[in-house]
Amino acid sequence: MRISSTQYFNMNVATMSDQQAQLSQLYAEISSGVSLSTPSDNPLGAAQAVQLSSTATTLSQYTTNQGTALASLQQEDTTLGSVNTVLQTIHTLVLRAGDGSLNDGDRGSIATQLQSLRSQLMTLANSTDPQGNYLFAGFQSSAQPYTTNSAGVVTYSGDTGTPGVQVTDSHVVQTGDNGIAIFGSVAPIGTSAVPAATTGNTGTGVISQVSLTNPTNPTNADKYSINFSSATTYTVSQTDPATGAVTTSAPQAFTAGSAITLGGQSVSITGAPNAGDSFSVTPATQGSMDVFANLSQLITTLQTPVSGGASTASFQSALTTSMTQLENTMNNVVTAQAAVGGREQEVQALQTVTQTNTLQTSSNLADLTQTDMVKTIGKYTMTQAALQAAQQAFAKIQNISLFQYLS
Fold first, then answer.
1. Is the pLDDT score of 277 beyond 80?
2. 116 lies in a domain?
3. How high is the pLDDT of residue 38?
4. Of 6, 265, 306, 337, whose CB has the highest number of CB atoms within 10 Å?
C-alpha cells in the first residue's frame, strides 16, 4: 500500500495534535485538582458524582440536626436534674414539717420556703434550649408555657405535643417533653396510690401511706373509700374506674394500726376515727398530678393553724397525701430524665455513624472528581515524552528525499 507524503504528513500532525490535546487536559486536571469538570469528561462518573453530592448534602443536614437535637436533650437533661434537686429539697422540708414539736410559726416558715421553691420550679419549667425554644411547651415552643394568674394559680398554656427532629432517613428523635408529661403526670411504674382523709373528719384517725403487696392485682386500679359507721366498725367501698360500679364490703372490725387490705395494696389508720369519718385511696393517675397545684395545697396545709385533736389528725393525713404526691412526681421526673439520657446516647451513636458515612461519601466523591496527582503527573510526563519523540521523528523523516540518496 502506497502512502503519499501528504497522507503521512497529515497522519503525524493528527497524532501530535491528539497528544497535545491530551497534555492540555492533563495539565488542566493537575492545575485545578479536578479530574471531572464537565459531564462529557466521564458521563457515568458524572452521574455517580451527582448522586454522591446529594448524599453528602443530606448527611450534612442530618449532622446539623443531630447537633441541634443533642444540644436540646442535654439542656433538658440538665434542667430535669435541677428540677429533681428542688423536689428533693421540698421532700426534706415536708419530712421536717411532720415533726410534732413544731408550732404554727415554724410550719409557716416552712410554707414560705416552699413558696420560694415553687417559684424556682416554675422558672425551671420555663427553661429554654440553646435555640431559645421552651423545653416544656410541646409544639408551642415559642411561648412561655407556665404563668401565674391573678388568683396566684400556676397555669399551663402549652400543648401535649412532643417535638422531634429528623436525624436519619428513617428516624425522628424526640427532642423535648411537654409540661404535662413532666409536671402534670405520673410514671406508669414506681408510683403509689394516694391516701387521703376526708375534709370534715371529727376523729383523730390518721391514714398511712399505701403499701403495695401485689403489683399485678388488677383491682389496684380501683378507687377505695374506707367509711366508719362507728368508732370500731368500717366498710370498704370499691369503685371500678371503667364502669363506675361501686362494691361495698360487709362491716369489719377496726383495730388502730392494723393493715386494711385493698386489692393488692394495704393501708393502716392510727388514732381513733369517729362515726362518719372516711378515708380514701386513689390510684395516682386518677388524682391530682399537677405538682404546682399539689405544692399550693401543701403550702395551704402548713399555713393552717393546728389546735390539736381532729385538726392535728387532719394535718398529719394531709402531709401523708402531699408526701405521696411529691414522691410520685419525683419518680416521674427521674423516669423522664432517664428517657432523655437514653435519647442522648442514641443521638451520639447516630452522630458516629453519620460521621463515618460522611467521610466515606466524601472519599468516594473525591475519587470521582479530584485529580490523582501521582497518577496524572506520571501520565502527563509520559505523554509529553511521547509528543517530543514524535515531533523529533517527524522532523527527521520529513527531511528525507530520493535526491539525497542520488547525490
1. yes
2. yes
3. 57
4. 265
DSSP for 367-398, written as a single string:
HHHB--HHHHHHHHHHHHHHHHHHHHHHHHHT
Q: Check: CB of residue 114 under 8 Å from CB of residue 298.
A: yes
At residue 157, does pLDDT exceed 90? Answer: yes
- Give the Å distances, CA to CA, from 172 to 66, 178, 295, 343, 350: 10, 17, 36, 11, 11
* Count of all residues that appear for the chain in the document: 407
Q: Which of 267, 282, 297 is the last residue of a domain?
A: 282
What domain range is 99 assigned to? 53-191+288-395
- 3-state SS, residue 113: helix
User: For residues 166, 167, 171 and 176, what is the CA-based torsion angle, rounded to 10 degrees?
Assistant: -70
3-state helix, strand, coil in the chain (%, to 5): 55, 15, 30
By CB atoms closer than 10 A (0-12, 13-18, 19+), residue 101 is: exposed
Please indicate, yes or no, whether residues 156 and 269 belong to a single structural domain of this protein. Answer: no
Report which of residues 354 and 387 the model is more confident about.
Answer: 354
| Residue 85 within a domain | yes
Residues 155 and 300 in one domain: yes
Whether 254 has a pLDDT exceeding 80, the answer reads: yes
CA dihedral 84, 286, 212, 297 (to 10 degrees): 50
Strand partners, 269: 207
Distance between CA atoms of residues 174 and 163, nearest Å? 6
Read off the pLDDT of residues 109-118 as tens digits, 9 standing for 90 and up.
999 999 999 9
Asked whether residue 299 falls in the same domain as residue 356, the answer is: yes
Residue 35 has pLDDT above 90, yes or no: no
- Residues with Cβ within 8 Å of 339's Cβ and at least 6 positions away in sequence, in order, are none
Residues 255 and 329 in one domain: no
Last residue of a domain, one of 282, 311, 338: 282
Using CA atoms of 34, 35, 38, 43 in order, give the dihedral in degrees to the nearest 10: -150
Positions of E strands within 107-214: 146-148, 154-156, 164-168, 171-174, 194-197, 206-207, 211-212
C-alpha cell, 406:
542520488
pLDDT of 265 higher than 60: yes
Q: Where are the alpha helices (DSSP H) in 126-262?
A: 179-183
